[in-house]
Known about the structure:
Blueprint: H1 4-15, H2 25-43, E1 47-54, E2 60-62, E3 66-73, E4 82-86, E5 91-100, E6 103-114, E7 121-125, E8 133-138, E9 143-153, E10 156-159, E11 161-162, H3 165-172, E12 186-189, E13 194-198, E14 205-213, H4 234-247, H5 251-268
Parallel strand pairs: 11-12
Antiparallel strand pairs: 1-14, 2-13, 3-8, 4-7, 5-6, 9-10, 9-14, 12-13
Helix pairs in contact: 1-2, 1-4, 2-4, 4-5
Amino acid sequence: MATLATYEYQVQDLLHDPNNAIWSITQIDAYINQARRKLVKDTGCLRTLQTSYLTQGVEQYTFGQVTGATVVAGGSGYTAPTVTFSGGGGSGVAATLGVSGGAVNTITFTSFGSGYTSAPTATITDATGTGAQIALGVINQATYDVLNINVIWNSLRYALQWRVFSIFSAQIRLWLAANYQRQPTMWSAYGDSSIFIGAPPDQTYPIEVDSIILPTDLVNGSSTIDPIPLVKQDAIQYYAAFLAKKNMQAYGEAEMFLSDYRREVAEDVAVYTRRLPNAYADAGGSGY
Length: 288
């Protein structure tokens, strides 16, 4: 499996610059990470099934925010519990807790925070209570695209139908969220960093978000393994070399490396999975 050091050797070899006489290692690393993001955007190769939660009455979910939570265990003896959050790479999430019979039974968000790449950990504090646990969900801030969304309801998992936003809005946003909540059936992307769910959920639902996530920059030359699948990695060296040659205005050589990159991507892109408007439509139907 490739590390940053692997890519550095490949790019330096292509550029005939093993001792960094022309390009510094900092430049080479920047080109490599830019090439990794480019490859994921072009091929969708870093596909991830994120698990999260929908919040009752909320129809828009922004990447990087906490989307919802569920009380895993209510515990006992609670009188006035408070909850704080840590980890996950973001900040700003805040919530209050409800208690019934000494057990925590509800969580209500006052802020969903921002910047999260994974779910933060909830810590519940109370003078008398013990044993309560809460699980949170997020949609990674680095999400580049969402392909499908599955809702888990009791023992069932079902796929939401996708619509472009104008059709989604016309078909299912006729009523305000406060007046119309039920089991969701549709979703739509809105801009580059959020999705809408319709109808607004009538309760908390676990979800699976089939998505493409941009890779985190590699910064450790030898120890961090690239999560990009091994069979897709060959194209990275060519795009990084293209960027290096473009930087020095060697446009002819840059075009050669860009052609090599495109050839590799053409072989990979055939496996890129398209978004389905409706997984339940017949083969000849539009799904609308």
